[in-house]
Design a protein that fits this description.
homodimer; alpha+beta; OB fold (Dihydrolipoamide Acetyltransferase, E2P); BirA Bifunctional Protein, domain 2; 2 domains; nine-stranded mixed β-sheet; disordered N terminus
Amino acid sequence: MWCKNAFLAHSRNFIQLNHVYKNFSAIASVIEKASVGEVAEVKGWVRNLRVQKELVFADVNDGSCAQRLQIVIPKNLKPETLTYGSSVHITGKLSKSPRGQLELVAENVNVLGPCVVLDGYPFNPRTTHSPEYVRQYLHLRSRTNYISAILRVRNSVTRHIHDFFASNNYLHIHTPILTSNDCEGAGEVFKIQPDNEETVKAMMQEGRDKDSVYFGTKTFLTVSGQLHLEAICRGMGNVYTLGPTFRAENSRSRLHLSEFYMLEAELAFCDSIDKLQAVIEDLLKYLFIQTINSNEADLHLIDKEKARLPFWVDKKFVTLTYNEAKSILDKKGTVSTEEGLNKEQELALVEHCNGIPVFVIRWPKEQKSFYMKECQDDYTKVDALDLLTPITGEVVGGSLREDDYEKLKSKLPSERLNWYLDLRKFGNIPTGGFGLGLERLLQVICGVNNIKDTLPFPRWPHNCDM
Amino acid sequence: MWCKNAFLAHSRNFIQLNHVYKNFSAIASVIEKASVGEVAEVKGWVRNLRVQKELVFADVNDGSCAQRLQIVIPKNLKPETLTYGSSVHITGKLSKSPRGQLELVAENVNVLGPCVVLDGYPFNPRTTHSPEYVRQYLHLRSRTNYISAILRVRNSVTRHIHDFFASNNYLHIHTPILTSNDCEGAGEVFKIQPDNEETVKAMMQEGRDKDSVYFGTKTFLTVSGQLHLEAICRGMGNVYTLGPTFRAENSRSRLHLSEFYMLEAELAFCDSIDKLQAVIEDLLKYLFIQTINSNEADLHLIDKEKARLPFWVDKKFVTLTYNEAKSILDKKGTVSTEEGLNKEQELALVEHCNGIPVFVIRWPKEQKSFYMKECQDDYTKVDALDLLTPITGEVVGGSLREDDYEKLKSKLPSERLNWYLDLRKFGNIPTGGFGLGLERLLQVICGVNNIKDTLPFPRWPHNCDM
């Protein structure tokens, strides 16, 4: 029989168990917790090596933090294979350098894996390689300062996102990657098929083509989890998802990827656009504050200018209607050949508002998706929003959802979405939600110009290495 | 200029901001925090309705917890459209029922969305529908007890996984969904293409087929993030990923999905299989303990028998070599026509060990993947492990990775993996890792027989609705 006391005893047990393989020797822990005179053990990679008359100085980093630990090695202890790029296991005693920095005086130096630069290693010591150069070596680039710092920030931002929603009682939902919904992506979707011809043959039924043989229907990679979130929201309340989404666009801009992560949230019982704006504004400010707190040294390594809170963090975000935004742009004389706002115009609006993020609301209906709710006082507009920030322009898009059964029915783009219409038929509630591009947010937080450097394995046209 | 004090001031600011749209009226909060005599506001769905002479009793649930709140409605306040399945907004005063349970005496009842069962709503009050029946209505099934409780457990288990690894300094890495590695999945992979014929035409180059027109190489959905994790691990230390993976198998068993979530971890500087076992055993025990703590009422709703800690949580897991396991099975007289262990044999081994989870280690080399490390004392075996549990059999698979450059080179299945070989050439380290199927783990934690009920939108052959 299970009882609370037994549980607590088990919890204590666990606390011991939990440390069996805790990474005690991580350089982050050594720098934070150990003190001069203590014995320490470090495993990592040599990021720099200076050989002097009596002593060798090796800067070692293990990826656990932005800092390198300086190792002082008496020359007689230096193995032949100790070079830039090699992996090492070092034991010794902690000491203070003449400059007052913590350093490790080695007593034992073991090279785990040598690194012969002339054998094709693409990086050199004391050299700043361009992001474009480094991007050619995806499998090795986590060894560079720039990329490893960004990946640590990405890890933290992801965690802060989950913390924000968990503390506000949102349920995390894994929306599906594979979907038979064919009408959200404006045609720029990937379709899937089994690769194995025997599987295709075995599953083939009369009248079906290869595209629909496996699932019985043509199947795509998701462009958004919103419609699925709406289904769960209408039974379980506030929900969110953070997962990969896909676009088969032929775009190679510094703001586009074929595979990227999107945070999407759906708010139950949400009946006004300003509630949605309040949550988005809270979330953005929370993420900037928490990330400075958790990763200041990493942000400093990526871009010194960004290692501080943005000035707007205690200011209210600006709100403009679409018409107001257009009239500001007209006065500036910017011209758009397309509907809506182009990237240049988005950035001009942020500049116009002195760099404070800008919500643009009340969009013309014909520019936005079928599921967006008509404004109550103007049937030509919908209750949609874009949030514009410096560097990337649009980083969030959202709307109230059309909850009128007849209106939605008249706009439904495909019979395949009858299930979505059904949601309005049985115990319907008002909802609203938004999507935030994780990589674009990371660009803004870190000050990274090219989106391809904000995730470990970027995919874009003609590039799917590894 | 940014400084620590300013940061703290901002943090305080945030704490106020953060509550703008906190879900104060969630039934979970009302039950936990409010007390008799207080005014309360509740929004949710009517899960049961009993009409008596003077009073109407409505059980309302909003998905925030397993419990329903009983609403007592004076008959004159009952709207016509208040029925089973309808969504409601109710204000009133909290009180105690004659049985001592918290209830809400309604002062205002507003039906947000009616629900006419005869109009096609598939569920009925006071009826237990079978999981197979409910599964036909994916878009509505989060309104059932069984599925909503499982989704809350899934949310918690996911969170506990992140907590476990964060507290042990593992970095969360988003490994890619799209990959050009073609040699891990034993042929059972999905391939992808742009759906838009114009995109295909615009990107077509001479000598390329449709499968490789977009990325310049044939591209698949991932079957594992392990190789990518290994690349990051060899620069940043301990890493893990938790994301979707895919198999294009023609299998409809209660244990298989076409899209499922896998937790994969890679341990830096890991040179023995027992370190790997220790982490896996810790993780499993941690997840069971934390989930009982966070979701006891949900587990009770799913299966009364499972709403307690398993007896093995303070016992050491059993370890058997593959040879030992085979000899136990031989004595039992179970026969396998295939290599390795079949499902029946896996479950027989767990039963043989009195229901305690069993590690099977030291597997014949020819049964396992090319990247697994040869045992030091027996070149016919590899340092691999399977962890077997009740209900599902195998739930974790793992190994030390071959770190000898020449041995790995001789086993490499494709030139496309030269990057993987490269990792052994430059500053190599010993690593080991494992993969855990999230849905199978949920089956074991919740006691769910069919894997299709452990995630919101299951995909399996001929089934990709929504």
